[in-house]
Amino acid sequence: MDGSSNCNSDPNPAHIILIPFMAQGHMIPMVDVARLLASSGALVTFITTPVNAARIRPSIDSIENSQRLPVRFVQLPFHSADVGLPAGCENVDLISSPDLFKPFMKALSLFGEQVKLYLTATNPTADCIIFDSMNSWVGAVAESLNIPHIIFHGPSCFYILCAHLLKKHQVLKRIDDDYKLFKVPELPEPVEVMKAQVMSLKDRPEWEKESEEIYKTEKSACGVVMNTFEELEKSSLDKFRKEIGKKVWPIGPLSLANKDLDSKAMRGKASSIDTGLLLSWLDSKAPNSVMFVSFGSLSRNPISQLVQIGQGLESASSSELSFIWVVKEAENSEEVENWLSEFEERTKGMGMVIRGWAPQAMILGHVALGGFMTHCGWNSTFEAIAAGVVMATWPRFGDQFVNERLVVDVLRIGVAVGAKVPIFYVDEMSGEGLVKGEEVRKVVEKVMTIDEEGEERRKRAKELREKARKAMEEGGSSFENLKRVIQFAKGEKKAIGMKL
Fold first, then answer.
1. Which residue spans within 320-477 are E strands per DSSP?
2. How many CA atoms lie less than 13 Å away from 121 in the CB half-sphere?
3. Contact 157, 228 (CB under 8 A)
4. Least confident piece of the model among 20-29, 286-295, 312-321
5. Do domains 4-252+472-499 and 271-449 have the same CATH topology?
6. In 288, 336, 380, 498, which residue has its Cα 20 to 30 A from 222's Cα atom?
7. How far apart (Å, rounded) are the C-alpha atoms in residues 49 and 28?
C-alpha cells in the first residue's frame, strides 16, 4: 500500500493520534499503522516515551527523513520512579520481576495525565485516537476531550474472538482442571484448548479491577482496528462484528507496510547483526533450505531448553538443512554464551546464530527460507503468513496457544512442536515441560521435507501470501478498510461536534 504520492493532497487531513502499549510486540505494528495512515492521507501523531522512541529510532528516522511522511513522534515523560519502578523502566520487557507489572500499569495511567495535557494543547485538534486495548485509561481521556476513540487489537481476530466468547460464557470460572481440553463455545472453527493455555492476566482474580477497566473502555470505543485481513479470518471477523455490534476494520498484514529492504531490516529495532553479511549468507543457500528459529522479544529459554533446541537443530542440519537461530538469552548469561560458542564451532557452515535483535521480516522474505520455528506471537505469525512461510509452532503464553490452533488446525500451514503448557509451568530442575531435542529434530525435518503433505502446506502458505499482498494493494480489502478508518475519523468528530 503506497499512498505517499498523495499523502499531502488533502488540505484538511484527518489528525489521528496513535497510542501504543509499551511492549515491543505492541509498538512494532503501531509504527506500521502510523506509516500506512500517513501514506493514505492522514496527519498522524504517535505518542510514546523517550526510552521507547530510542528503541524505534531507525523506523522514526526512516519515516521522517527518507519517506518524509506526515507523522509526528511525540515523547512525553513516563514517571517510573513515582510508582517504585527503576528509572527508564518504560517497556514491558524491561520489567525485572512479575511484582513490578502492577506498578507499571499504574505508571501508564499516570502517563495518561501527560497525554491529556498534550492533547488539550495540540494543533490541529485531534479527530480520533487509535489506542492499544491494554491502555484502558485512554477511554476516559478521550471522552473528557470529546475525541472519538478506536481500539487497536494487535492479536489475531481468532484469539480476540476466543477471549470474548470465553468471557461471555464464563468458561474459565467453571473449569477446575487446568490441563483438560475443551472446545471454545460458538467459535466458527471449533478448536480444543486447555485452561492453562488461555488463562491471561485479565482472567486472574487479583487483576479484576484492571480487567473491568479494559472491558469498559472496549465498550465505549467507536470501533476496532485489527492487524489481519478479511480473506484470512472471514468467519472470525463476521462473528466478532456480530458479537460486539461495532465497526471492525482489518488493515493488515501491517508488516507489508515495510516495502524496501531497509524498512524490513529495521522493523522493530536496529538489527544485532550486519544485514549485508546475513544476506550474503542467505544468498549462498538453496531455496527452501533454511530453518529460521526465533521466539520473540519477551520469551526466554532456560539453558537446559537451549541445549535441547541446539541438539535438535544440529542433528537435523546433518541432513543438508541449514538454520538461523536467534538466541537473545546470550546477551546476559556467561553460561549460555560459553555453551553457544561451542555449539557454533560444531555447526560452522550449517548454521548462523544471532545474539539479540534479528531483522525478522527481511529473513522471512528471503527465497532460501523453508520454515520458521516460532513462539506464535501474532506479529511473527503474521509476518510468516505474509511471506508464505510454513511454521513449526512453539507457543509460550498469552495469545500464542490459540494462534497455534489457527495456524495448525484452521489454516493448516504449520506443524506443532508439541509444547502443551505455558513456559511458566516448565520445571528446569526436573525437566518437566521441556521439549526434547529429538522432538525438535522431527518437527524441523517434517516442516522442511518436501513430501506430499509438506507440499500441500507450502501450497496453502503461498496462496495466503498472495491473498495478503492483494489485500494491501489498491482496491484490496485492507487498503479500502484503511481509507474507511480515515473517513470515519473525520466524520465521527463532526458528528460529535454537532451533538454538543
1. 322-326, 351-354, 369-374, 391-393, 414-416
2. 5
3. yes
4. 312-321
5. yes
6. 380
7. 14
Q: Are strands 247-250 and 223-226 parallel, antiparallel or unpaired?
A: parallel
Determine the pLDDT at residue 500: 33
The yes-or-no verdict on residue 218 having pLDDT over 90 is no
SS3 385: helix
Query: Which residues 6+ apart lie within 8 Å of 245 measured at CB?
Result: none
Dist. CA 60–CA 38, nearest whole Å: 13
Beta-bridge partner residues of 48: 75
User: Cell digits for 73?
Assistant: 513522534
Contact 282, 261 (CB under 8 A): no
DSSP 379: H
pLDDT for res 460: 98
Closest CA to 235 of 412, 406, 463, 391: 406
> How many angstroms separate the CA atoms of 318 and 300, rounded?
26
What are the distances in angstroms from CA 136 to CA 51, 112, 211?
Answer: 21, 10, 9
What pLDDT is attached to residue 386?
96
pTM of the model: 0.90
- Confidence (pLDDT) at 202: 64
Name the β-bridge partners of 98: none
- Cis peptide upstream of residue 253 (ω within 30 degrees of 0): yes
Q: Which residue has the cell 560452522?
A: 348
Domain 4-252+472-499 belongs to what architecture?
Answer: 3-Layer(aba) Sandwich (3.40)
Q: What grid cell was written down for 192?
A: 480444543
For position 319, what pLDDT does the model report? 65
Average pLDDT, the chain: 89
User: Is it true that domain 271-449 has CATH number 3.40.50.720?
Assistant: no
Sheet with 15-19: list strands edge to edge: 71-75, 43-48, 15-19, 128-132, 149-153, 223-226, 247-250
Distance CA(491)–CA(194), nearest Å, equals 43
* The pairing of beta strand 43-48 with beta strand 71-75: parallel
Q: Which residue ranges make up each domain of the chain?
A: 4-252+472-499, 271-449
From residue 314, give the alpha-carbon distance in Å to each of 310, 349, 491. 6, 11, 58
Eight-class DSSP state of 6: G
pLDDT at 425: 59
* Sheet of strand 369-374: strand arrangement: 351-354, 322-326, 290-294, 369-374, 391-393, 414-416
CA distances from 210 to 38, 105, 141, 213, 358 (A): 33, 9, 16, 5, 34
